[in-house]
Structure formats: structure tokens, C-alpha cells
Amino acid sequence: MEKFKITPVGIVRKSDREVILEIFPEFKDAIDGLHEGDWIKLILWFHKNDTPEKRRVLKVHPYNNPQNPLTGVFATRSPVRPNPLATYTVQIHHIDENKLYIDWIDADDETPIADIKILVERLDCPTGREVEGWELDIRSARQIGGLSLIPRISEHLDELEEVSPEEYIALIVELGTKTTYLTARELIELIKALEEVYEKLPVEIKDKLKSHSS
User: Where is the TsaA-like domain (predicted)?
Assistant: First the structure.
């Protein structure tokens, strides 16, 4: 079986009341784009549980309570597992150079950080999928400021004439962790609203925009 290498990108610094993600200098540029208030998915490597014996444990008593029935580790949050990865959903409260100050977590001080990803409601907190992942035109997605615009692929629909503009989801809009699904009708209304906003811009601003785009 092929083995994979995980390179720590930082380390957890922890006191009684404060948790800091200290990112190593060579990975500092990866912080660019994160902001205070952002929610992130934090992936840690529980190095203290990384032993051959603990990697072979496939069933545990949840919460380490022997009164709970033995359960497969994939159905638990146990730190003991074939690959001792731990995931957390936390909020960034402050950023200072290469240090991210986050919510309190139960990880030990000096726990290696395997990765950090921005939390996306559509992917990480699904309550009901309006559009399946395979229906999204990811290659055509655009990021403008803090907005992510992901159009929907329409080629797979066989009888589009039977779908009304009020029902057809045309665009997925993500702002931070929040996701909104726009129907074709709502998309047209948004375009009209943006055109009205543009028309109200000062003439000097519009002239500069035109000169930059030409």
C-alpha cells in the first residue's frame, strides 16, 4: 500500500485560556486571504497517539467511557485511529503575522498542524442540497472580492423547456461561510440591480473604469 507524507505547516500553542495556531515561516504566505472572524476547518495530527499499537485499534468506547458499547472509530471522534488526524471547526479571532488566535480546542500544546481550510457552508454544513456537486461548473467559477460565483452546468438537463425560471437554480453565491442559491429569475433581477448601481457611479469613476478595461 502506498504511503503518504504529511508535512506540518505549523504548531498549536496553547495555554489555559488561549489557543494560537503558529504557522511556520515557510508557509506564512498561505495565510493570505484569511480574515479575523473567518471560520476554518483545522486539521491536526495527534502525534501522541501515533504509535503502531494505537493505529491498530479499530473499535473504542466513545468518550473513553467503558459503559458505552465498542464502536468503530470511523463512527466516533476518538483520537485513536489508523491515521491520527483530528478535525475542528473554529473561528479566527485575531491574526498577528503568522499567528492565528482561535477558539479553545482540546488539542495538546505543540500538536502539529496538518492543514487549514476555509469553511464553506455548502460543503461542510449541508442542510439540504439544492444542487449536487457534479452539477456545478467549477472551472467557470469566479471570485470577486469576498464573493464566489459558481454557475450551474445545464447540458445535463434533458427537458429544460419544462423547467421554469423561478425553479431553475442558475448560480451559487458564496460569501464567507454562507451560501445562497439564485434561480434564473433572481439572477436576472440581480443583473438589473447591479446595472442600476453601476449607472449611479460618478462619471469620473466610470471613465476610469472604461479606460482600464480598454
Answer: 6-128
Residue 31, all three cell numbers: 495565510
Secondary structure (3-state) at 193: helix
Q: List the pLDDT tens digit at each of the 214 positions of the chain.
A: 788 888 999 999 998 889 999 999 999 999 999 999 999 999 999 998 899 999 999 999 988 888 889 999 999 988 899 999 999 999 999 999 999 999 999 899 999 999 999 998 888 877 766 778 888 888 889 888 888 899 988 765 555 567 788 888 899 998 877 888 899 999 999 999 999 999 999 988 888 888 876 6
- Residue 2 corresponds to which amino acid? E
Phi/psi at 161 (5° precision): -65, -20
CA distance 149 to 104: 33
Q: Which residue in 107, 118, 117 sits closest to 18, CA to CA?
A: 107
**Exposure letters 107-130 (e unless 16+ CB within 10 A, then b):** beeebbbbbbebbbbbeeeeeeee
**Domain locations along the chain:** 10-120, 123-213
pTM: 0.74
